[in-house]
Amino acid sequence: MVLEITREIESALTPNALRVLEKRYLRRDRNGRITETPEQMFRRVARFVAQAEKQYRPEVEVDTIADEFYRAMASLEFLPNSPTLLNAGTETGQLSSCFVLPVPDSLEETFDAVKYTAMIHKSGGGIGFNVSHIRPTGSAVGEHFDAAGGPVALIHVFAGAADYIRQGGVRRGCNSVVMSVSHPDILHFINAKSNPSLLTNFYNSVSVTDDFMDKVRSGDDYCLIDPNTGRAVGSLNASAVFKRIVDQAWSTGDPGLVFIDRINRDNPTPSLGRLETITGCGEQALLPYESCNLGSINLAAMLKEKGGTLSIDFNKLARLIPIAVRFLDNVIDVNKFPVPVIERTTRLTRKIGLGVMGFADMLIQLGVSYNSTKAITMAEEIMEFISERAKEASYNLALERGVFPAWSGSIYEKRGLPMRNASCTTIAPTGTISIIAGVSSGIEPIFAAVFVRNILDGENLLEINPYFERIARERGFYSRELIEQLVTSNHLHSRKEVPEDVRKIFVTAHRVSPEWHVRIQAAFQRHIDNAVSKTVNFPKSASREDIARVFMMAWEWGLKGITVYRDRSRQSQPLCINEIG
Ligand code: B12
Fold first, then answer.
1. 20 lines ligand 1 (CB under 6 A)
2. What 3-state DSSP class applies to 260?
3. Which of 37, 286, 398, 545 could form a disulfide with 100 if both were Cys (CB 3.0 to 4.6 A apart)?
4. pLDDT class for 580, splitting at 50, 70, 90?
5. Contact between residue 437 and residue 466 where contact means Cβ atoms under 8 Å apart
6. Ligand 1 atom closest to 193 (CA)
7. 429 ligand 1 Cβ < 6 A
């Protein structure tokens, strides 16, 4: 029986999924030999996370809940973030993927944060920092004039610690750093990654206010504020600074923008302070020392067939969402947090992040192009449904287990709505878990129908979109020659043997115009408590004006942040296609 289940799961996993699991996730003995199957991995995680039930319902059969969790994961319909898969039921026991560490203007506390960075990275988590409180370069330190190293130098200290530690022994840390546009060192920060070999485990963003964006439009100056004294120490022209940001993002992909006023309009616990920092891949704004665990529903597996027509299976989604929310809430209880202050802060708000992956693969199966109004309508419909049901599940958990401790003073108290979690939804980047599920990542369009993934420290994994392969075989245009040619040149759109309707459905990241990338992101953001992790991929030929337009559009359309990348603007990149022009 066990062997049969194992075979069933393994046949659902793609060869690339198995490769990633073997290399990074499955437990090993002291000699490095793999000691568990994927099936046993999902059982280990399900059992461990189900333990939390005992605290609340001693009478409940933990095994029954564990079975529900197991089925959700083993069917690849729901996967939690990587640290949960890696560490549940192990000695490490750290299950969250995103953390925010404060970086105050004090040597002792800053080096505490460096220590916490090492501890979090060791357990596989990603970290968001905000260096806006660090005194500017050259400020006085005690009696010493012109002594402060400044915030950018400090980022290198964190990057060094993160580089030294390989996450869970397997990969480098994932970090993001934010600096307020009004910091006197802002121009230095904007250029901090102009040498692309520096800070490669960091993604940098400039935090901008609505006032700043208004001034970009009007061409006015704005004030630079010394965080040490709170006084204005100079001014810059907003549109000139915006141009610098655009210029650098066009050159290397960093920095992006964080729209901090928009983020705080959604702050569920304003009485605990303003949100200033986003986590590793931009998916979540958290308070200092907060952490969050994420999980993603595989939309490509949420379809049903009737009379030969596919449609979204809302009943299946409705069954899965409360299981996923219960799972993520349980994780907070069974998690071994890296330091006590993170445990205390996380348990105050109990934020979780349920999101989706495989959105593009779902659209392909439904015959809908990613860059169409139909796709926007579907994005809104699905995310609104998930968001409402997730809130309902959190409400039911509040009745069963109590509201989150910081509920008084929260936006939910004002509405008189008991909630177990201060926030419920997030679109995570789903870097590795989408490979395990064998689907397109997060809400990104497909990168190409056939392409090479350069990951796992230099391994090249060939990816053929399974729906493309199936359609090509069914409609008789599949050939080895076609696949080989598509790997070396992504000219699907100009291949005559590929019917036009197929070319339209398999629209790839660089063929989706930047406006459509932003429209899809905005459609999801409208129904997400936290933020959306997404990159607007531009073709190499994109101009600086194209980037500037997208940055403006992102602000106008209510995104919480924006990340762009122009193809081949860096010498090496993980996803490669050879497309001329
Ligand atoms: Co990134 N990133 N990233 N990123 N990132 C992605 C890989 C992707 C595909 C996002 C997208 O466009 N949808 C693009 C690459 C486009 C492409 O290949 N054609 C991308 C980009 C462009 C960037 C940035 C330029 C910022 C930006 O988006 N504008 C910077 C550049 C970093 C640098 O200076 N080298 C950037 C930064 C990051 C951080 C936040 C630092 C982390 C990486 C942490 C680290 O170094 N360890 C990060 C992640 C985690 C991802 C993400 C979400 C998952 C990667 C992953 O886990 N892959 C992917 C999106 C996705 O795949 N869904 C984007 C699966 C595992 C099994 O493989 O070998 O462990 P892996 O993956 C590693 C590499 O992918 C590497 O770090 C990963 C984790 O160790 N990596 C690299 C991540 N991003 C980048 C970017 C470049 C240029 C390089 C060389 C390497």
1. yes
2. helix
3. 286
4. very low
5. no
6. 34
7. yes
Nearest CA to ligand 1 atom 33: 200
Q: What is the distance between the alpha carbons of residues 498 and 476, in angstroms, rounded to a whole number? A: 10
Among 301-310, 323-332, 385-394, 487-496, whose mean pLDDT is lowest?
487-496
Report d(CA 469, CA 472) in Å as an integer.
5
In the chain, where the domains are located: 2-94+289-415, 103-278, 445-576
Which of 44-53, 168-177, 207-216, 283-292 bottoms out in mean pLDDT, i.e. has the lowest?
168-177
| Mean pLDDT calculated for residue range 482-509 | 83
Question: Percent of the chain having pLDDT more than 70?
Answer: 94
State if residue 432 touches ligand 1 by the CB under 6 angstroms criterion.
yes
At the topology level of CATH, where does 103-278 sit?
Anaerobic Ribonucleotide-triphosphate Reductase Large Chain (3.20.70)
Q: Which two tokens stand for residue 285?
A: 């704004």
Which ligand 1 atom is the nearest neighbour of the CA of 249? 29
Number of the ligand 1 atom closest to the C-alpha atom of 429: 53
Nearest CA to ligand 1 atom 87: 573
Tokens coding 455: 């990951």
**What would the pLDDT profile of 309-328 be if each residue is shown by its tens digit?**
999 999 999 999 999 999 99
Give the tokens for residue 53: 């039930």
Backbone angles phi, psi at 20, to 5 degrees: -65, -45
Are the beta carbons of 508 and 449 closer than 8 angstroms?
yes
Q: What's the gap in Å between 41 CA and the centre of ligand 1?
A: 26
**Beta partners for residue 304, in sequence order:** 311
Find tokens 């997730």 and name the residue: 390
> Measured from the CA of 565, which atom of ligand 1 is nearest?
29
Q: How confident is the model at residue 2 (pLDDT cuts 50, 70, 90)?
A: very low
Query: ipTM for the complex?
Result: 0.97
- Closest by CA to 150, choosing from 131, 136, 140, is 136
- Give the residue from 290, 120, 274, 273 showing the smallest Cα distance to 207: 274
Choose which residue among 85, 166, 200, 532 to substitute to test ligand 1 binding: the one with the highest number of ligand atoms within 8 A of its C-beta: 200
What ligand 1 atom has the least distance to the C-alpha of 434? 63
Considering just the CA atoms, what is the radius of gyration of the chain in Å?
23
